[in-house]
Amino acid sequence: MSKTLRTLSQLQDALDAERVWRLKELSILRKKLLLGIGKIGVAREDDLSLLRPCITMLYAHWEGFVKAACGAYLEFVALQRLANKEMLSPFLALAARRHVSQSDVTGAEADRLMASFYREHGDRRDYIPYKNGVDTKSNLWFDVFRDIYESLGLSWQGYELKRMLIDTKLVSKRNAIAHGRFIDVKSDDVEELFDNIIELMDKIKEQLLDSAQNGKYKLPNH
């Protein structure tokens, strides 16, 4: 995403581009690796050798899309150059932390500076740092996803039903495979993951666009 994301159309183009290439790769992966699974004459060991790579690639696209899409949304919000008094608390906190970090103070003095920032600088348009602003912690468990959403002022509750799928069927198994441990993988679980990761990418994209279009990154009445 090299283009500056100042407008809604630029954000939409960026999110569409992220989705399209990932969807294409997942579709090819699904077709090529799952084509022979469960057919007569295919050994269970062969099935596993095809299913395990699917888990690692599905995880890669889950983490990659969340990082790229949420990063694009954060950039879009930052480039709106809102007054501090217009910002939702998570964005104001980002601006305040940057302000304090530039002052080279720590401890109680940093706390006082943070408090004065909130009290006295409502009309300023402080910079919201957005580059590398989304941290997936290299393990995008559901709770990490929730924290990312909260840091962007987004509602995450609509994803709660996917918690077990993300944590137990995707991240946990990906970690086991990545560390060279043997785990049993069922084709039905992999099919379920393909369906759900694509569904999640679509849902995230639509939510980010809706939030951008309707100004949900701002405090009400601003």
How do the helices and strands line up, and which of them pair or pack?
Blueprint: H1 8-34, H2 44-78, H3 89-101, H4 107-120, H5 142-151, H6 163-178, H7 187-213
What are the salient characteristics of this protein?
2 domains, 222 residues, mainly alpha, 7 helices
- Strand count: 0
Structural class by helix and strand composition: mainly alpha
Helix content: 55-70%
- Structural shape: elongated
Question: So how many helices?
Answer: 7
Q: Provide the gyration radius in Å.
A: 21 Å
Unreliable residue runs: none
Can you give the mean pLDDT?
87
What is the strand content?
under 5%
Q: How far apart are the first and last residues' alpha carbons, in Å?
A: 29 Å
Number of domains: 2
Largest sheet, strands/sense/barrel? none
Description:
This protein is an all-alpha fold. The chain has helices at 8-34, 44-78, 89-101, 107-120, 142-151, 163-178, 187-213. The protein is elongated and about 65 Å long.
Task: Please outline what is shown here.
The chain is mostly helical.
